Amino acid sequence: MRLIAENLGGERGGEGVFSGVGFALDQGQALVVTGPNGSGKSTLLRIIAGLLPKAEGRLLIEGGGDDFPSIASACHYLGHQNAMKTALSVVENLRFWRDFNGSGDSSVDEALETVGLGGIGHLPFGYLSTGQRRRAAIAKLLVSHRPLWLLDEPTAGLDKASEARFAALMMKHCVAGGMIVAATHLPLGIEATELRMGEATERLPQQGIIS
Ligand SMILES: Nc1ncnc2c1ncn2[C@@H]1O[C@H](COP(=O)(O)OP(=O)(O)OP(=O)(O)O)[C@@H](O)[C@H]1O
After folding, report:
1. Regarding beta strands 148-152 and 179-183, do their DSSP bridges make them parallel or antiparallel, or are they unpaired?
2. pLDDT tens digits, residue range 167-183?
3. Which is nearest to 196 in space by CA: 66, 57, 1, 32?
4. I want to staple 128 with a disulfide (CB 3.0 to 4.6 A). Which of 25, 61, 82, 132 is the partner?
5. Which domains does the chain have, with CATH numbers?
6. What ipTM is given for this predicted complex?
7. 77: region left, alpha or beta (phi > 0 left; psi from -120 to 50 alpha)
């Protein structure tokens, strides 16, 4: 499976945010998107997830077969919001996402143990602390059968131990043939290609640079 972006442009509110972004990501690889505030990292992730239209260029997935014929079917987007219902329990939320995305390798209980939330799955999601909410959102990735993880500031709110645990989970996902595109200001502790988005000092289209 291969995720390909060619000459991609993004805009918000009718104004260009970036242009000329290109990369190819193979199974087992991770791309870390960096750059200053407002340079378009979240916009790029949302375009890949299909939540925003691209302004120009090509974006496609190759080799997904019948299971993953499109990026939408292959991806799991973890945005700034955790996309969980506060009134439902953690377990109920995870069951919903497992059913919606297709079952992943972990059961709901196993995923909660893995992220260190074993024993509090019965609590309403709204009772959890900021870091616990993020950990529960990471558990969503584990109960879902989605090879392409799109992660926007995934470690925001996590303590050091949880950061290290999540780095290990990301590496395991890649070793198993998954792919990751992650926007971050913080080192994620994984081997990845870096895509640097340009300075956003003016509202002019910025170029992304692969290093
Ligand atoms: N709904 C919107 N309408 C108009 N402009 C928007 C909208 N959403 C975002 N923008 C603008 O688009 C630009 C890119 O925003 P984006 O959130 O992609 O940046 P980012 O690189 O992820 O920033 P950060 O590091 O702060 O998370 C910013 O200048 C922002 O103000």
Report:
1. parallel
2. 999 999 999 999 999 99
3. 32
4. 132
5. 25-53+69-196 (3.40.50.300)
6. 0.96
7. beta
